[in-house]
Amino acid sequence: MPVNVPIDDPNADTEWNDILRKHGVIPEKSPSPTPIIEEAIIEARRLAHENRLGGKGLDELDELEDEEDEQFLEKYRKQRLAELATISKTSVHGDVYPLQKPDYARDVTEASQDGFVFVHLTSSLGTNVESRLLSELWRELARKYGDVKFCEIRANMCIEGYPEKNCPTILAYHKGDIGRQLVTLKELRGKESRLEDLERLLVSVGAVKPNDHRVVGLGRHSGGGTSTIRGTRPGNEDDDDDWD
Question: Angle at the Cα of 82 (from 214 to 74), degrees rounded to 5?
């Protein structure tokens, strides 16, 4: 005949509950989340402390000599110089490249094997405000991020029958594939989109590192959509896909 064992609080840390758990009368007590939370807070504080100099230029680092540990500052200064040297070495672009359809595979798909390539499929209408805005921002991005390749081509010259309503379209290529597609700027801020919105897109796809001094201060990146183009490569006329 079953025996009813008195249990006041199965979650209490008592000697009686320990005996009951040992004999399988009550389940083992779940671990307290408090240590996990405390560990996460400590780790967040550690990272914030280590990254407290993020975004500061070399001149600003010199001004902090009286406030920061000299050894730490020197280490950080060397890291920044190395970062600047890498950016300078890889900044081989600096302008927006106009594309021609016959050269698309070479200038975009193949070129993306060596680094990120972003393509703006532009509107053929001068009244498309978003496309005109993106062209201006494209030039700013190209000047600021010379290590990333930015290109432009009229959408209907690139893909026959491409809908005007889908312009502007942004295609992000890497390693020969389209990793991200944005149809119009609605996933950013539409006609109110700014350079910072596109910079978040660069970070989100991996074209620019989150700790790159050129983007420090943007906060957590959130720009850009996650849709991918439906199996069609620009410049491929053999695909009868319906772009509507």
Answer: 100
